[in-house]
Write a structure and sequence with these properties.
The complex is a heterodimer.
Chain A lengths: L1 H10 L3 H8 L28 H28 L2 E5 L10 H6 L8 E9 L7 E8 L6 H5 L3 H4 L3 H5 L10 E2 L2 E2 L5 H4 L5 E7 L5 E3 L10 H7 L9 H4 L29 H7 L7 E8 L12 E9 L9 E7 L10 H35 L3
Antiparallel strand pairs in A: 1-10, 2-9, 3-8, 3-10, 4-5, 6-7, 6-9
Helix pairs in contact in A: 1-2, 3-12
Chain B lengths: L10 E5 L26 H9 L3 H12 L10 H34 L2 E6 L4 E6 L8 E5 L7 E7 L5 E5 L1 H4 L5 E4 L18 E6 L10 E5 L4 E4 L4 E2 L4 E3 L3 E8 L5 H5 L9 H35 L18 H15 L6 H20 L13 E2 L13 E4 L6 E12 L2 E4 L7 H12 L7 H15 L4 E3 L24 H16 L22 H4 L8 H9 L11 H6 L3 E3 L3 H12 L3 E6 L2 E6 L3 E14 L4 E7 L6 E7 L1 H7 L8 H22 L3 E10 L1 H16 L4 H12 L4 E12 L3 H10 L3 E5 L4 H10 L8 E5 L4 H18 L12 H13 E6 H7 L5 H9 L3 E5 L3 H15 L3 E5 L5 H6 L2 E5 L6 H5 L2 E3 L4 H39 L12 H11 L1 H10 L5 H6 L5 H4 L6 H25 L7 H23 L5 H24 L12 H5 L3 H39 L5 H5 L10
Parallel strand pairs in B: 15-27, 15-31, 27-30, 28-29, 29-30, 31-32, 32-33
Antiparallel strand pairs in B: 1-8, 2-3, 2-4, 4-13, 5-11, 5-13, 6-7, 6-12, 8-9, 9-10, 14-33, 16-17, 16-26, 18-19, 20-21, 21-22, 22-23, 23-24, 24-25, 25-26
Helix pairs in contact in B: 1-3, 2-3, 3-30, 6-7, 6-29, 8-29, 8-31, 10-15, 18-19, 20-29, 29-31, 29-34, 29-35, 31-36, 34-35, 34-38, 35-38
Classes of the chains: A alpha+beta, B alpha+beta.
Subcellular location (chain A): Apical cell membrane; Cytoplasmic vesicle, Secretory vesicle membrane; Golgi apparatus; Membrane
InterPro entries (chain A): CDC50/LEM3_fam (IPR005045)
Pfam family, one (chain A): CDC50
Chain lengths: 370, 1201
């Protein structure tokens, strides 16, 4: 009885432990445990990449990716987008004069009007962007040149901004609010949009300036020191950034909820762009409650208060009107990429199938003698 | 009152009654401390040691660079994190190791021993560490010596102490140590309080085989001290009830401790190769930095004086010149790109190796039930070398063989008897029955030969009898109660005497009495030359018997398991062969029961005990190749000489009766038959010995004795005279028979050798043994095949050796004109012929020739010849030669060498080889101590190399390449970004991700894969040893593979960068919202890449990958939610949360890894097709038709059938 018991234990994989506990007379030895882990015999899945497994995978990838790509491509194409370059580098451009005369130090505002026309109406909400090219907002020293504590409403940082803001930390012995190079270079063109009725009258299109920043930025990251009222008092003893025309508490005096550090244009600017050619949300044109399109087709005028110099870095300035879809703005790339990768997979599948067919035959014949 | 000691510069001195006690010199006490650190010194010392590693210095440099304001890219504190992490992981490992050493030290220091207390005048229990130099120590049987002790007294009647030195030199046979000469005559117990002498001896040194000094007594008498008086620390007292000694060296000054060098640091081949590529990484890094710096300079330059708003001035408000900017940027880039040098690679490799060592250690197949021993990995950092071995140098005795001699067969008087190892004594029963049943008148000559044969086996040796596990009783002395011997008392004996006596009268001339013709004999003890120099040797035959036993012998003897059961007697033999013969004789009831210097007692069935008066023992030496004993036969009272020796010499000494009568014919026939059997035995790989005897007349003996005594007492040339004397004695012998002793091969040796050979390993056997034996064993373990052409190189001078080498070469040229030396060219047809040729050649070279061959002028030729032979046997080689051979092959052929051995004589070879393997079975610890891996058996080598070696190599090689890939791929992402940020050193990847990506997010899966992945299963690896060549040729990690990996990494990073780039081009995406998806994509790509590389998926792989992804998202979400204002300069607040709501993010996560890994997938598929064909080829290959083999275009393995 004992013996058979013992043998039974020996048969299963975990016998040393069982014997060690059960048999009183067994000598403790150094024999390693016969566990799957210690003997490196863990049950394993071996994904052998054979023709049988890889070929279907290629086809499946192809079959999934191509429809997705087509869907994405169609979605992107349905997005309406209009881009107007108003840099004014060109003699014929309406903003040529402004662009030539303007620098950071000039005090007189220069305005120019750019007419354009829409061939098709924009149906849903329209987003109005300003776009800059060749503007390296991702420059390392530029990106770092800010003080998040100050922007968060910290009074100590307001009076004594972080060293990171240098050399835009103080001006005239007074701390700059908001400090740093990013704030200093705030985009300060004003864009207005007018619809030219067929009868010739201009109708200003209502541009909504709130709701363009991230909610978390507006409500968590950016705060005015000591609440939103009496910004003039709060910011007393600070200096405006050197390139600014007006102080930070004068950004939007009409709306205390959009003034000071929580001005949404300012917040949007402070979120530094990833690439040197970028756009930033400027205004939203909400869809009208009735069935008329948000922007009907016809003639429009873009009124630009030209403040922002880009000639020093050969930048371009653009105004973009765009609707958006669930996947964001107009960008056919992803759709094309999906279609391409899907097609390549499909094609490779076919090629490998052919190769496999050829080689497979050879393998077969060789296998027979064994 | 302490023991004052007064050492002189070269001499240690211990003096009890020193007149100036204030001149105390501190000797080290017996406490040992092998730890490297103390609690206080740990931090500085460990850091200091870690900074010896270049990589660590580099990383600290990078971290400190962060503190330089002009180039700080990261938060300086954060930048320290990886370095601190790496250093602390290593420090914790070191601390743990040191703690283990501390614990074992403590255990050893607190063992008990008996130390004489001068206050209480008795021996007290003390800890080992409390013993001091000059203390008297009493030791009992089976106790371990706590220090090096000079033996002053022993309970043994001969004033001997037997010790086992296995822990020191690995020899398990007992050694005798004797009491210092001056104390020899002490009859009563040694009284320490009366001791009053000064001991002077040499300074502590690590030479185990040397000890010199002298002891000066109060009387002024001075006696020499020799190594025979010294008991070394770590040895065990055996067979001796009690002994007393004085501590000479203690603690770290003991020879055992001085020999303990601690583990060596070896660097594996793979690691060397890796370091080269780390160097390349540094160069790539510098190139990338330089490129960026120049780019930045140019970028700055193009704006000229028009400073754009985004080009921020220096903190001081000064404008930076493009050149200065570029220089600053260069430093910044080094920090940003630091990840390219895989900081965690070194730590990860160490972790993986520890895990590999653990698994090797746990392997049940490498465990030996019999000795209850594991494989031990003593070197932790060369596991992967096991997968790249090309040459194996093996010791023979104890490594290939068991070193357990087993009596196999014998031939007596021309009749062959085989012997069953289990002790089935058919022969003896049959024989002795005949002896009894037959009337004495018919006592045939072959029967008397048989009896003589067994008596010779029993007494013609130096075997000592002892009882197991008990203090040695003086077996054979008359006082011994159990072994009372009455030569006259036994009635049986008396009867036999009568019988023999009457038989003699009737059978005159028959073999009992047949002796040699008259020759003069001499008498005297025959000490070995080195012994006679000892001052304790008082001379005379009284000592000669025992002095023989102290003769050093490389062999050891293991008691046969079965032997102990039948009797309580245990034999301590100088060589295992002798013991085997004695045990064999005992199996036939002819047992040795006692040996005294002048008397040997043999117990015969029904006859009882016979005591032979031992007149002389002429010990074995390698020139005569025989030994003899001269005894007075108790039955016939004749002077009889029994000689035992190598067949080649004994056969020549046999005198045949010149007469042509029947007797002469019979003798000739016997001689002829015996020679035949001897040849048969040799072919079976048995060690053969011939046994012969001669009977001397009193006159002959007297003549010989006179000369012999002269020789013994000669002052000059005594050895030579003794040698001559022995030669004079050993002539005109009468052949009794021959024995065949098997040095049994270890289990599985031929199979292991065959399999290792299939794996492409060259196996050389280097042995100290003689040529014939070595060749026999080589045949037995299939190292040589019967149809092999054997080239034997035996030369007397360099000229001849050179000549023979040359002849050999010309011979080869004649024999095989197609032969070319650099082997094997890739074309299968020529390798076919070549392997056929290699198959046929075996080289046998002896020690003396080897000495010439190793000479720098000939070594090239020797190697050329040797490498073209399939097997090489070096016989009679010294330990130094062994190591020189290994060194030569290793350095000249640039191959990976493995040396395997079990004895002290293999130590040097083990140390020289790339990987040293010790067999921990028989000969103890010396080889094991020097080795990197200790195996219980030779056959374990197969699994160790073919399976674990392959796995370790392939795992590590793949892991290292993967590491390079991973880091390069990740860093390249940032590099591409430099083109879009004005080469300003900006990074879209958040600094936290950048720093912890390697350490946390992507670390675990590769560790799991690096530890557990199996590219081929254990069974397949053992069935198809050819797969081992993969590692030999470094197939997994060739230099070009680094660059392939780099190219792949750069391609993948391009995909991972540009798909998000175009997907987000000209959008309102901000820096981190764009960078975080890239990080995620890179993580996915890297993990899926690892997944493609992983051949076997266990649940641990799944868990680790899931964990990695989970960890990344958890950390990202927590980090992005934690603080809206911290983590300057970047602040990724709520980025990940927003991303997870965007469909675009998921779309990117799907397409990018697929696009990035598509080439690899395609290539992987192709390779896997070829690989499966390879395995298949190997299968096919084992069958004769290999038609298909050559048609496969892409074969990674060179398959030799």
């Amino acid at each position: 009885m004992m013996a058979s018991n013992y043998n039974a234990k020996e048969e299963d994989g975990h016998q040393p432990a069982a014997i060690g506990h059960g048999g009183a007379g067994t000598v403790k030895n150094k024999k390693p445990d016969n566990t799957a882990f210690k003997q490196q015999r863990l049950p394993a899945w071996q994904p052998i990449l054979t023709a049988g497994t890889v070929l279907p995978a290629f086809f499946v990838i192809g079959l999934i990716f191509i429809p997705i790509g087509i869907g994405l491509f169609v979605t992107s194409n349905n997005i309406k987008e209009l881009e107007i370059d108003y840099t004014g580098g060109d003699m014929s451009s309406p903003c040529y004069n402004c662009s030539q005369s303007y620098s950071w130090n000039s005090t007189k505002p220069c305005t120019c009007s750019v007419p354009f026309s829409l061939d098709q109406p924009f149906e849903s909400n329209v987003f109005m962007y300003y776009g800059l090219s060749n503007f390296y907002q991702n420059h390392r020293r530029y990106v770092k040149s800010r003080d998040d504590s100050q922007l968060n409403g910290d009074k100590a940082s307001l009076k004594s901004p972080s060293k990171e803001c240098e050399p835009y930390r103080t001006s005239d012995e007074k701390p700059i609010a908001p400090c740093g190079a990013i704030a200093n270079s705030l985009f300060n063109d004003t864009l207005e949009l007018y619809y030219i009725d067929p009868n010739g009258s201009r109708t200003a299109i209502p541009l909504v300036k709130k709701g363009i920043a991230w909610w978390t930025d507006k409500h968590v990251k950016f705060r005015n020191p000591g609440g939103n009222d009496n910004l003039t008092v709060v910011f007393q003893g600070t200096s405006k950034p050197v390139n600014w025309r007006k102080s930070v508490y004068e950004l939007d005096p009409s709306d205390p909820d959009n003034n000071g550090f929580i001005n949404e244009d300012f917040i949007v600017w402070m979120r530094t762009a990833a690439l040197p050619t970028f756009r930033k949300l400027y205004r939203i044109i909400h869809k009208k409650p009735n069935m008329t399109p948000t922007l009907p087709l016809g003639q429009y005028i873009l009124e630009v208060t030209y403040n922002y110099p880009v000639r020093s870095f050969e930048g371009r300035k653009r105004m973009i009107l765009s609707t958006i879809s669930w996947m964001g703005g107009k960008n056919p790339f992803l759709g094309i990429a999906y279609i391409t990768v899907g097609s390549v997979c499909f094609f490779l599948g076919i090629v490998l199938l052919i190769i496999h067919h050829k080689y497979g035959n050879r393998n077969h014949s060789a296998d027979i003698p064994s | 009152s302490n023991w004052p000691c007064k050492p002189t510069p070269t001499v240690r001195k211990q003096n009890k009654g020193d007149d100036s006690p204030q001149k105390k010199i501190h000797y080290s006490d017996n406490e040992i401390k092998t730890t490297k650190y103390t609690l206080l010194s740990f931090l500085p010392k460990n850091l200091f040691e870690q900074f010896h590693r270049f990589a660590n210095v580099y990383f600290v440099f990078i971290a400190l660079l962060n503190f330089v304001p002009v180039c700080n890219a990261f938060q300086p504190q954060l930048a320290l994190a990886p370095v601190v992490f790496i250093l602390s992981v290593t420090a914790i490992k070191d601390l743990w190791e040191d703690y283990r050493r501390h614990r074992s030290d403590k255990e050893i220091n607190h063992m008990d021993c008996l130390v004489y207390s001068r206050y209480k005048h008795q021996y007290m229990e003390r800890f080992w560490k409390e013993a001091r130099v000059g203390d008297f120590i009493r030791l009992r049987c089976n106790e371990i010596l706590p220090a090096d002790v000079l033996l002053l007294s022993s309970s043994d009647p001969d004033r001997l102490v037997h010790i086992e030195t296995a822990t020191l030199d690995g020899e398990t046979n007992l050694k005798q140590r004797r009491v210092v000469c001056s104390f020899l005559d002490l009859d009563c117990d040694f009284d320490p309080s009366k001791y009053n002498s000064v001991i002077e001896c040499e300074k502590p040194n690590n030479d185990l085989a040397r000890f010199r000094g002298y002891i000066t007594h109060r009387s002024g008498r001075r006696d020499g001290l020799y190594k025979d008086n010294l008991l070394l620390r770590g040895c065990t007292i055996r067979n001796t009830e009690e002994c007393v000694g004085i501590v000479i060296y203690a603690g770290h000054e003991t020879k055992a401790m001085l020999n303990n060098n601690g583990p060596r640091y070896k660097r594996s081949k793979l690691e060397k190769q890796m370091n080269v590529d780390v160097g390349w990484c540094v160069i790539i890094l510098l190139v990338m930095c330089l490129f960026s710096a120049i780019g930045h300079g140019l970028w700055m330059y193009q704006y000229g004086d028009k400073r754009p708003v985004f080009d921020v001035l220096s903190p001081e408000g000064a404008e930076l010149s493009p050149v200065l900017s570029a220089i600053y940027l260069f430093l910044t880039m080094i920090i940003v790109f630091q990840v390219l040098i895989p900081v965690s690679l070194f730590v990860s490799i160490e972790i993986v190796k520890i895990c590999q060592v653990y698994f090797i250690h746990q392997d049940q197949d490498l465990y030996d039930e019999e000795t209850d021993s594991h494989l031990q990995c003593r070197a932790l950092n060369i596991t992967e070398d096991l997968g790249q071995m090309q040459y194996i140098f093996s010791d023979k005795t104890g490594t290939l063989t068991e070193n357990k001699m087993v009596f196999r067969r014998c031939t007596v008087a021309g009749v062959e008897y085989s012997h069953d190892a289990n002790g089935e004594t058919i022969l003896s029963q049959m024989t002795f029955k005949r002896f009894h049943s037959q009337s004495l008148s018919q006592l045939p000559s072959d029967l008397t030969d048989i009896i003589d044969f067994f008596i010779a086996l029993t007494i013609c040796n130096t075997v000592v009898v002892s009882s197991p596990n008990q203090p040695r009783q003086k077996v054979g002395t008359d006082s011994g109660p159990r072994w009372k011997i009455g030569t006259e008392g036994s009635p049986v004996l008396r009867k036999l005497r009568q019988v023999v006596g009457s038989g003699r009268s009737r059978l005159t001339g028959e073999s009992w009495l047949t002796g040699g013709s008259g020759r003069s004999w001499l008498t005297g003890g025959s000490g070995r030359s080195w012994l006679t120099g000892g001052s304790w040797l008082t001379g005379g035959s009284g000592c000669s018997g025992c002095s023989m036993q102290t003769g050093s012998s490389g062999c050891s003897m293991q008691t046969e398991p079965g032997a102990l059961e039948e009797g309580e007697l245990r034999y301590e033999a100088e060589s295992p062969d002798e013991a085997a013969l004695v045990y064999a004789a005992r199996a036939y009831k002819c047992s040795l029961v006692g040996r005294l210097p002048d008397q040997v007692t043999v117990e015969l069935p029904d006859l009882g005990k016979l005591s032979f008066e031992l007149l002389h023992t002429l010990g074995f030496d390698s020139t005569r190749k025989r030994m003899s004993v001269v005894v007075r036969h108790p039955l016939t009272d004749q002077i009889t000489v029994y000689t035992k020796g190598a067949d080649s010499v004994i056969m020549d000494l046999i005198t045949l009766p010149s007469t042509d009568d029947s007797k002469g014919k019979r003798q000739r026939k016997i001689l002829y038959k015996t020679q035949n059997y001897l040849n048969l035995y040799a072919a079976d790989g048995l060690r053969t010995l011939c046994i012969a005897k001669k009977v001397m007349t009193k006159e002959e003996y007297a003549v010989w004795l006179r000369h012999h005594l002269e020789a013994e007492t000669a002052i000059q040339g005594r050895e030579e005279l003794l040698f001559q004397s022995a030669l004079r004695l050993e002539i005109n012998l009468h052949l009794l028979g021959a024995t065949g002793v098997e040095d049994r091969l270890q289990d599985g040796v031929p199979e292991t050798i065959a399999s290792l050979r299939k794996a492409g390993l060259q196996i050389w056997v280097l042995t100290g043994d003689k040529q014939e034996t070595a060749i026999n064993i080589a045949y037995a373990c299939k190292l040589l095949e019967p149809d092999d052409e054997i080239i034997t190189l035996n030369a007397d001078s360099q000229v001849r050796s050179s000549h023979s080498t040359l002849t050999l070469r010309s011979f080869q040229k004649d024999y095989a004109p197609a032969y070319s030396f650099p082997p094997p060219p890739p074309s299968p047809s020529s390798s076919q012929t070549q392997s056929f040729l290699v198959h046929r050649l075996g080289l046998v070279i002896d020690g003396r020739t080897l000495a010439y061959a190793l000479d720098s002028s000939l070594d090239e030729k020797f190697l050329q010849v040797a490498r073209s032979c399939r097997s090489v046997l070096c016989c009679r080689s010294t330990p130094l030669q062994k190591s020189m051979v290994v060194k030569l092959v290793r350095n000249k052929l640039k191959v990976m060498t493995l040396a395997i051995g079990d004895g002290a004589n293999d130590v040097s070879m083990i140390q020289v080889a790339d990987v040293g393997v010790g067999i921990s079975g028989q000969e103890g610890m010396q080889a094991v101590m020097a080795s990197d891996f200790a195996l219980p058996r030779f056959r374990n080598l197969q699994k160790l190399l073919l399976v674990h070696g392959h796995w370790c190599y392939s795992r590590l090689a793949n892991m290292i390449l993967y590491f390079f890939y991973k880091n390069a791929m990740f860093v390249a992402l940032i590099f591409w970004y430099q083109f879009y940020c004005g080469f300003s050193g900006s990074a879209m990847i958040d600094q936290w991700y950048l720093i912890f990506f390697n350490l946390m997010f992507s670390a675990f899966p590769q560790l799991i894969t690096g530890t557990l992945d199996k590219d081929v299963s254990s069974e397949t690896l053992q069935e198809l040893p050819q797969l081992y060549m993969n590692g030999q040729n470094s197939e997994e990690y060739k230099p070009y593979m680094f660059w392939m990996t780099m190219i792949d990494a750069f391609y993948q990073s391009l995909v991972c960068f540009f798909i998000p780039y175009f997907a987000y081009a000209d959008s309102d995406v901000d820096l981190l919202t764009w960078g975080t998806p890239i990080t995620t994509l890179a993580l996915f790509t890297i993990l899926i890449h690892l997944g493609l590389e992983t051949k076997t998926w266990t649940w641990m792989n799944w868990v680790s990958i899931t964990f990695s992804v989970g960890l990344f998202f958890t950390v990202a979400l927590c980090y992005n939610a934690s603080c809206p204002t911290c983590y300057s300069p970047s602040n990724p607040y709520w980025t990940m949360q927003r991303l997870l709501r965007e469909p675009l993010f998921y779309l990117l996560c799907v397409i990018t890894p697929v696009a990035a890994l598509l080439p690899r997938l395609v290539r992987g598929r192709c390779v896997s097709v070829y690989e499966s064909e390879n395995v298949w080829d190997v299968h096919v290959c084992s069958r004769p038709h290999s038609e298909m083999l050559n048609t496969t275009g892409v074969v990674d393995l060179t398959v030799k059938c």
